[in-house]
Design goal:
heterotrimer, A alpha+beta (about 180), B mainly beta (about 110), C alpha+beta (about 400), B: about 110 residues, mainly beta, Immunoglobulin-like, four-stranded antiparallel beta sheet, three-stranded antiparallel beta sheet, globular, C: about 400 residues, alpha+beta, SHC Adaptor Protein, 12 helices, about 10% strand, elongated
């Protein structure tokens, strides 16, 4: 092959011409590197890794009890203009499942049943919800569980946010007084 | 994300790998002129919430202003005196509370 | 690469065409290959795993209704909570039942649609999901919004489309190439070049579809991450508290069964073909049903209130805006899962052709220029480092 060639002018261009195909190797490394996390996440969503992290078991809520756990040990995730949310899972006690109509979660004591917070979705043995975390929540805040019965009854209990999600409290403390 | 596993022909469901927080309710209130407050409700994916109940409730749990969001997903009302909170109520567990202290005075 | 100061326009097009995939060709190749696999991943599982098959117990066996299947499941596993039932695209597939067991695990079960028997559980390694995740977002997890891997892969739609356009510009009179035989015996470069061109012209439609729909996925992520929606689907997340009865004895209020829900939905929406049912996820949730309509690329759905027996919301083909008709068609056109096995096989075949085109494109390129570049680089390493202002030209004999 006869071709006229101009050699690369700058060291940067030389670098690029020499190493550009190694970009391929880098790109291949990405899914290889994420594979463990992919399978760990799949396990988590299947429920094979337990209810979640930092589980608080047997929270007494009136005549009922449930287990509460955050889905991931991390700070709340931003959802655009809606604010920050933390995913939680809960499991109702076996004997409770029939009588419990709905379970809600809220930071701070609810004013009413109507404003009891966010509702848990799914089967009683593994329900999930997205808890809104107002940015000015105090680190010593309580997370309130409200259980609504089919007979219209309402029962409540609270656990410290620091226990339910230490990562959230750490995030709140870092936020400081930022709105 | 409990979302997406589209392969199962369930297009409405989100894949376990897709954006998990697609449909959270939201409500923002701001003070507008003449002592009024304008609240805009919707969902975090960008959807509006026309016709959804928006009540202004005093701390004593009396409903001061009972209303529904308009076609443009907003409701404007006269700012009540005293302590109150705004409740965007799209159904049980789909509520957003905005405290009067978070609605800046103009 | 040789770069003389003056370039004729077609040489420029040719340069652009040959450079579009090259720095990342292996990445592009794997994306195409995994896409090809993903199209038929369900079928591959069907071949490998008998649990997934809808085996008829007898020739005259009839398919059970959704409620009959639910009854069978509840009888077999009383402690199990069924969240949804869906029929994959193809009657040869068993039903998929997403359930929650008492230990809190949430497997997907394969259920025989004729007998309601649980045939098996989706294995821990979900092949369909894996190929989809590898192809669609390069296994990069989703954190806030869309995964950056999604952006990485969907961005490839742009050079793919450019590759199609530039390829057609440089291939003079490409329309004559549909039946041009591939020359063998003239060396491998000629062979791969001819094969690349022949595969290319026959794949024009497919590459256009894949690249444009791929670019749509990019737009979709940008919209999603900016919390902009173009959906006109009504948002009715839950049923109002007043509509859900309380009971005196604290037992759950009665709800209509799935077949009744299907009947009610069918009355409200004539011709609604139901291929999936979601049971209410809370006491305040609807029974969601849906399936395809006359337009095979899109689903129609209805939300039935299990207490008032009313269809509280629906999203039919006629409810979509014109824009939605276009955007909602994008994903099925990309994945080819809108017309059963026949369409999937067409997508698979052209996906294979596309993968081979990426490979052949690279082979042509290596034989044409890589060796010369490597030689030039070797010379540049041996020669003293040129300073920034110097340009040294060498002519190879």
């Amino acid at each position: 092959m006869s071709q006229a060639r101009a050699l690369p002018a700058t060291p940067l261009k030389q670098f690029w011409l020499k190493w550009r195909f190694h970009l391929n190797i880098l790109l291949i490394l990405i899914p290889l590197g994420f594979m463990p996390k992919y399978f760990a996440d799949a396990r988590m969503f299947r429920g094979d890794a337990g209810l979640g992290v930092n589980q608080i078991s047997d929270i007494q809520v009136g005549p009922y009890s449930l287990d509460l756990a955050e889905l991931r040990d991390e700070a709340p995730r931003a959802d655009g203009p809606a604010g920050h949310f933390k995913a939680f899972n809960a499991a109702l006690c076996k004997a409770c499942t029939n009588e419990v109509k709905a379970v809600y979660l809220r930071i701070g004591k609810p004013r009413s049943l109507r404003a009891a917070g966010t509702i848990f979705f799914g089967a009683p043995y593994r329900m999930g919800t997205n808890l809104p975390v107002p940015p000015r929540t105090r680190p010593d805040a309580q997370v309130w569980v409200t259980i609504e019965g089919w007979d219209g009854s309402m029962h409540q209990a609270s656990v410290p946010l620091a226990k339910a999600s230490p990562a959230t409290v750490a995030w709140l403390e870092k936020q400081g007084g930022k709105p | 994300m409990k979302h997406l596993i589209r392969r199962l022909a369930l297009p409405l469901l989100v894949l376990a790998a897709g954006p998990a927080l697609a449909h959270n309710p939201m409500c923002e209130c701001e003070a507008v002129d003449a002592g009024q407050v304008k609240c805009t409700g919707g969902f975090s994916d960008g959807s509006g919430a026309p016709g959804v109940t928006l009540d202004v409730i005093g701390y004593d749990e009396q409903v001061l202003v009972g209303g529904k969001l308009g076609e443009d997903s907003t409701l404007t009302f006269k700012r009540p005196d005293g302590e109150f909170y705004v409740l965007f109520d799209a159904g049980p567990g789909h509520v957003v509370e905005v405290d009067y202290a978070d609605i800046a005075q103009p | 690469m040789a770069k003389s100061p003056k370039k004729s326009k077609s040489k420029l097009w040719f340069l652009v065409h040959s450079w579009l995939a090259l720095p990342i060709w292996f990445f592009v190749l794997i994306v195409c290959f995994t896409g090809m696999l993903a199209v038929v991943s369900q079928e591959i599982v069907w071949l490998a795993n008998p649990d997934v098959r809808a085996s008829k117990p007898a020739d005259s066996a009839e398919r059970l209704s959704f409620q009959q299947v639910l009854d069978a499941l509840n009888k077999a596993e009383p402690d199990m909570s069924v969240r949804s039932l869906s029929q994959p695209d193809g009657a040869h597939f068993a039903l998929n039942a997403r359930v929650t067991l008492a230990d809190g695990t949430t497997p997907t079960l394969y259920v025989n649609p004729y007998t309601g028997a649980i045939q098996g559980k989706m294995p821990d390694f979900n092949f369909e999901a894996f190929t989809r995740a590898l192809h669609g977002w390069w296994l990069v997890p989703f954190t806030n919004g869309y995964s950056w891997g999604w952006y990485l892969v969907s961005l490839l739609g742009l050079p793919m489309l450019a590759s199609l356009v530039t390829g057609l510009v440089v291939y003079k009179k490409f329309w004559k190439g549909f039946f041009k035989p591939v020359r063998t015996g003239h060396g491998s470069r000629i062979f791969w070049g001819d094969l690349h061109r022949l595969a290319g012209v026959w794949s024009i439609w497919f590459i256009a579809v894949i690249s444009i729909t791929g670019i749509w996925f990019l737009i979709q992520a940008i919209l999603g991450d900016n919390h902009i929606t173009i959906s006109s689907e009504p948002v009715v997340p839950v049923i109002a508290r007043e509509q859900v009865p309380q009971t005196n004895d604290g037992s759950p209020a009665p709800r209509i069964d799935l077949d009744e829900a299907a009947r009610i939905a069918g009355l409200a929406i004539p011709g609604l073909d139901i291929s999936f049912v979601s049971l209410p996820a809370t006491a305040y949730s609807h029974i969601d049903l849906g399936g395809r309509g006359w337009y095979p690329l899109m689903f129609q759905s209805a939300a039935v209130n299990p207490y008032t027996r009313v269809v509280d919301s629906q999203f039919l083909l006629g409810d979509r805006s014109a824009l939605e008709f276009v955007t909602e068609s994008m994903r099925p056109l990309h994945t080819g899962d809108f017309g059963g096995l026949a369409i999937k096989l067409v997508w698979f075949f052209f996906g294979l052709v596309l993968t081979l085109m990426v490979l052949s494109g690279l082979l042509i390129w290596t034989k044409r220029t890589a060796q010369a570049t490597a030689a030039a680089l070797k010379r540049s390493e041996r020669a003293p480092r040129a300073r920034a202002s110097d340009i040294t030209a060498e002519i190879q004999p």
